[in-house]
From TrEMBL:
Catalytic activity: L-threonyl-[protein] + ATP = O-phospho-L-threonyl-[protein] + ADP + H(+); L-seryl-[protein] + ATP = O-phospho-L-seryl-[protein] + ADP + H(+)
Source domain of life: Eukaryota
EC number: 2.7.11.1
InterPro entries linked to this entry: CK2_alpha, Kinase-like_dom_sf, Prot_kinase_dom, Ser/Thr_kinase_AS
Hydrolase found in the keyword field: no
GO biological-process terms attached to the record: regulation of cell cycle
Key words of the record: ATP-binding, Kinase, Nucleotide-binding, Serine/threonine-protein kinase, Transferase
This protein's name: non-specific serine/threonine protein kinase
ATP-binding in keyword set: yes
Recorded GO CC terms: cytosol; nucleus; protein kinase CK2 complex
Segments of skewed composition (Acidic residues): 9-20
């Protein structure tokens, strides 16, 4: 359901559009056509020029369809602008917004987010993002695709506008109730996309739009997302993921004894001292190529270890890092310069033995002789208490004994949930559906959310027409769908 504007628009239309904006003043007081009063004076001028350049590269009918009033943000692969949908009433938008009753009065204009994909992005990456957004129609707490269009090398994706607050402005002040809603919304989004076999790969606060006042959260930016396709044969000491085991499970392979022997040799070398630890100057072994997409500080151990079979569990780890930042009131909690430093940061929390076992799970060996890495480090609870000694202090000025007890119990449960989400062994990490059943969310999650293995129908308004069910209740393959992806649809 993509709207494509004619790339062969006439030069007259382009010229008229460019002339309209070039003749206007860029004085900071010009605010009738923009919404930039929250910006500094000089910043307004720069953003207005950016909007002019953005619209100047598009056909003339763009100004008839959308009015761009601000820039919401910019990243490595795209820039996002705030606009009004001038033709909202001419289309059916019931799948992404509540219909407004027509009472004859002037209704408020509908805001949308216009995501401009930079021309440096590959066509395959753009097509992948659009296909995934189309497949995620109806997912709860996930930004929905409205439409998309292309003009020459410019690709624009139109998404709903979600008011949100900067994570850095509220993460230190969240009470138990806000933490519950925040994590419930995030895990609900991950549950729905994981049931469709989609790995987000870049879960972080900037990609989870949370409105602190209304307590609503939406997962966005699927530019790095991909479909999980199980490998034809096991590549690690864990089996490929399946519908009944989204994160895989332990297994023995022909390489198991080789890996165990390599781990034994690595530990022996590490104990031998600094002079015996190292690798050949000219290592002739082939390099390992795997997907390392993600943001520094939020990459799961299996990503850092270059595991070739990365499941949806990498998103669960990132969600755990977000919860850890909230509980410790430290953001970012990890801030390494490369993958080796990132592994050392994780080892400093979980211990040398734990990270070695994690490496072995992915057919890797880790050699380290840093004396400060303990074999049996403190628990996650003790770590959080060291970083945030006041975590069990109720936020109320004069709390009652019942309020204090409820706060302490909620924080205990939040710490336990965080510990489970941050398990190094991906096969023991809970799925999003299992995490939603944690006592931390008691009374907040309904029975529908507790369904661990649900098959979503296209009739429930949550998945468009993407799923079909036969007479036996089993999932039917869609036209053109490969059987290898059936378990994750």
């Amino acid at each position: 359901m993509s709207q494509v504007l004619d790339a062969a628009s006439s030069d007259d239309e382009d010229g008229a559009d460019g002339e309209e904006y070039s003749s206007g003043s860029y004085h900071s007081g010009d605010s009738e056509e923009f919404e930039m009063l929250h910006r500094e004076v000089l910043e307004r001028t720069a953003v207005k020029r950016d909007i002019k350049d953005f619209l100047g590269g598009l056909p003339g009918q763009m100004g008839v369809t959308y009015q761009v009033v601000d820039r919401l943000g910019e990243g490595t692969f795209s820039s996002v602008y705030l606009g009004y949908d001038l033709q909202h009433d001419y289309h059916d938008n019931s799948y992404w917004i509540e219909p407004t009753p027509d009472d004859g009065e002037d209704r408020p204009r509908v805001k949308v987010a216009l995501k401009k994909i930079l021309a440096t992005s590959s066509p395959a990456r753009i097509a992948n993002e659009l296909a995934i957004l189309e497949a995620l129609r109806g997912c709860r707490n996930v930004s929905q695709l409205i439409t998309a269009f292309r003009h020459l090398d410019q690709v624009i994706i139109v998404l709903p506008y979600h008011p949100s607050d900067d994570f850095r402005a509220f993460y230190k002040y969240m009470d138990a109730g806000h933490i519950q809603v925040y994590m419930k919304s995030l895990l609900q989004a991950l549950k729905d996309i994981h049931q469709r076999g989609i790995v987000h790969r870049d879960v972080k606060p900037a990609n989870f739009l949370f409105d602190y006042e209304s307590c609503t959260g939406v997962l966005c930016d699927f530019g790095l997302a991909e479909r999980y396709v199980p490998p034809r044969k096991a590549t690690c000491q864990h089996a490929p993921a399946s519908l009944t085991s989204l994160h895989g499970k332990h297994q023995k392979t022909p390489e198991s004894k080789v890996v165990e022997q390599a781990v034994y040799v690595a530990r022996t070398r590490a104990k031998a001292g600094e002079a015996r630890v190292g690798f050949l100057h000219e290592d002739k072994r082939g390099s390992v190529k795997t997907n390392r997409a993600g943001t520094r500080g939020f990459r799961a151990p299996e990503v850092l270890l270059k595991c070739p079979d990365q499941t949806v569990g990498i998103d669960i780890w990132s969600a755990g890092i977000m919860l850890l930042s909230i509980l410790t009131q430290k953001f970012p909690i990890f801030n390494s310069n490369d993958d080796i430093e990132a592994l050392m940061e994780i080892a400093a929390i979980f211990g040398r033995s734990a990270i070695e076992r994690c490496a072995m799970l992915h057919n890797r060996t880790m050699i380290c002789n840093v004396p400060t890495l303990e074999t049996n480090p403190d628990s996650m609870k003790n770590l959080i208490l060291k970083l945030n000694p006041h975590i069990f202090t109720p936020p109320l000025t004069h709390p009652s004994s019942a309020d204090a007890r409820a706060h302490i119990e909620a924080m205990d449960q939040a710490i336990d949930l965080c510990t489970r989400l941050l398990r190094l062994d991906v096969t023991k990490r809970p799925t999003a559906a299992v995490a939603l059943r944690h006592p931390f969310f008691e009374g907040l999650v309904d029975d529908e959310d507790l369904m661990v293995q649900e098959v979503l129908s296209g009739l429930d308004g949550r998945c468009g027409a993407l799923h079909g069910i036969d007479d036996t209740g089993r999932r039917k393959l869609l036209p053109g769908e490969s059987a290898s992806r059936r378990a994750f649809s």
